[in-house]
Design brief:
Keywords: Hydrolase, Nucleotide metabolism. This is dCTP deaminase. Helix content is 12%, strand content 35%. The protein has one domain: Deoxyuridine triphosphatase (dUTPase) (Deoxyuridine 5'-Triphosphate Nucleotidohydrolase, Chain A), CATH 2.70.40.10. The relative contact order is 0.23. It is built from three helices and eleven strands. The strands form four sheets. The protein has a four-stranded antiparallel beta sheet with strand order 1-6-9-8, with no helix packed on it.
């Protein structure tokens, strides 16, 4: 079951869902709008390596906005910290942003029960696009979980700002199954 807008508001009020800051104007019929934070990261290495940390370049979006360029992956973040110990969140780009040619969260929309923090956004433009800190960039829907819950306790817990991949932190487990 997907929570409706009124139920998102109720779940925020009774503590089943945490959205900080919460603004009723960002509640939709069955989702909650999230806004783009002021920091972006880009990877600087010509070849990314899943087995090592990859260097990044930090970009601050000023009042004039920032032009995203095609062929570049940008890691952004939500202003809002969103999480729940009982509901399953999924984040998608807003359709109005998609109509501008910006892909948001196309490979990893699902959040884990028990994660609380700002969400890192994977942003990929198909043509140059000026974006602004504070613009509504995505929307989160919430599903009711059925069955026992094991809360998330992973490497991205309590994230603030965009987080580069920490896939390399999983190496001991990966090496054990490598051929």
């Amino acid at each position: 079951m997907i929570l409706t807008g009124p139920e998102i508001t109720a779940a925020t009020a009774d503590g089943r869902l945490r959205i900080t800051p919460f603004d009723r104007a960002q509640v939709n019929p069955n989702s909650y709008n999230v806004r783009l934070g002021s920091t972006l990261l880009t990877y600087t290495a010509p070849v990314l390596d899943a087995h090592r940390p990859n260097p990044t370049h930090r970009i601050e979006i000023d009042t004039e906005g920032y032009v995203l360029k095609p062929g570049q992956l940008y890691l952004g973040h939500t202003i809002e910290e969103v999480g729940s110990d009982t509901l399953v969140p999924l984040l998608f780009g807003r359709s109005s942003v998609g109509r501008l040619g910006l892909f948001v969260e196309i490979t990893a929309p699902i959040g884990d029960i028990g994660f609380h923090g700002q969400w890192t956004l994977m942003l990929s433009p198909i043509r140059p696009l000026r974006v602004y800190a504070g613009m509504k960039i995505g929307q989160i829907i919430f599903f009711v979980a059925v069955g026992p819950i094991t809360p998330y306790a992973g490497k991205y817990q309590a994230s603030t700002g965009p987080q580069p991949s920490a896939y390399w932190r999983d190496l001991p487990a990966l090496e054990a199954v490598a051929p």
